[in-house]
Amino acid sequence: SCGDYQDIQSMDELSKNPSCSSEISNEVHLNLGQIQTCFDVAHSFDPTVSGRVVVETYIESGVVFSTNVHMNTTGDSALGLCIERGIKNWYFPEYCSETAEFPFAFN
After folding, report:
1. What 3-state DSSP class applies to 31?
2. How many percent of the chain have pLDDT more than 70?
């Protein structure tokens, strides 16, 4: 199953707007179902798929400007791409402009 989203220290370190970190975390938690769907699809093709996917995300004025799969230990590149595609459609408060890493664990 999709483990939870794991907040990591670098997210706060990279934050230009400290109040934005909780808003970002809230948006990620609201969209965990989307991440679970990506995992479910990957799991249907390979029941042994597990590991971590970390997506680096650049947010500009609340809009996801760019994403990059920074780490993927699952061995399933389609899983990383699915997560990355989903994140590109997320929205944050307009005052959020920062780089954040979103780590997801799967087992």
Report:
1. coil
2. 82
